[in-house]
Specification:
alpha/beta; Aspartate Aminotransferase, domain 1; Aspartate Aminotransferase, domain 2; 14 strands; about 45% helix; globular
Length: about 425
Amino acid sequence: MGIGLARCLGVQSVDQETFNSLLSRRGGLQHPWSSVAPAPEGTISFGAGVPDPETLPLEQLDEAARAVIAEEGIASLQYGSSMGDIALREQIAERVTRLHGVETPPEHVVITTGASQALDIVCATFIDPGDVVITENPAFTGSLWTFRAHGARLMPVSSGANGLDIDELEQTLAELRAAGDRPKLIYLTPDYQNPTGVQMPTMLRRRLVELAANAGCLVVEDAAYAEVGIDGIDTPSLLSLAPEQTVQVGTFSKVIGPGLRIGWLTGSPPAVEHAAANRTDMGTSVTLSRMLARFLANDELDSHINRVREVYRRKRVAFSLAARENLGPLARWTNPAGGFFFWLEAAEGVDVSRLWELAREERVSFAPGHRFFVEDEPPMRYMRFAFSEASIDNINEGLRRLGRAVERLQDESQRRLF
């Protein structure tokens, strides 16, 4: 019923207070990015972790899509298994077995609508309101939002140059044990973490799964960026180190295309079995799944990923050089070994919030780092820059614009002194 017709019929509209009282606890939450105003037209964005459009295998996917429709017809447009299409599960299972050395049958793979849904299903399966989840800190805001939406009690553990701080994790677990509590999950991205870009060394991975086993909890390994290594060391996945204790969530968004919205979860067989039973939709698109399965069956993914890595290697160099030229001593960073992000720490006295505002006026954007922390009062000195989507020309121009914003910030600081 339209608002105009409702008024004509004398139907009373629901006031805001009444509407708010109808919302569930989860429905009343706001996503951390929902309040960000659109950037001005012509802005060069370093804000979102979006793949380079030139790396997306459009022609190969076009061929695969045509073949699916031509050869499978109506069957490709019907409902499928809630576990996901068997052809795609077979391809993913074979790849997981080969890459991680863990014998993975298709029955231990659930296809999801991206890694975000995979994590949501894991939470629905294991998390009741008030349950403890230990998370690296900073972490991907979308994951933190998902945990909060399920009512998890987040316990942050610092993430530094080597990823999640294992000594701090051990201390946190000891404190929980002393209080008669334990975590349900330990969540982290060990390869090219979002937002920091760091990779966890093998020795620390081994300690982590040992601590988790002693604590009696599951490890959730976010493998979203694991295939986008630039020059990272070949380290064993957490899944390969502890297959009975790990749930791995993965996605094709970073190397094939985020618009497909296809991810998966695998790992601990009982965890996968219960997770599959806890999804509430009718499964992921059969059409897209079969299209992707054909692409994977052509054995083109590995060579495609190698080309993708070379693109990001060149962009990483371009960003680092341009940042050094335009920011100078006002920020410090370590070049990421892979993934999509530079994590910059501003020098003391730099107002990152004000710099973000001035940067938008100069038509360049980045993600303020405080959004990636668990704390209510997070550190305000960090910035995340995604170097993946912008062309090298736009990387150079965007950082020149950022340099102008820095100059304006310095001028403002000088004026306040007099």
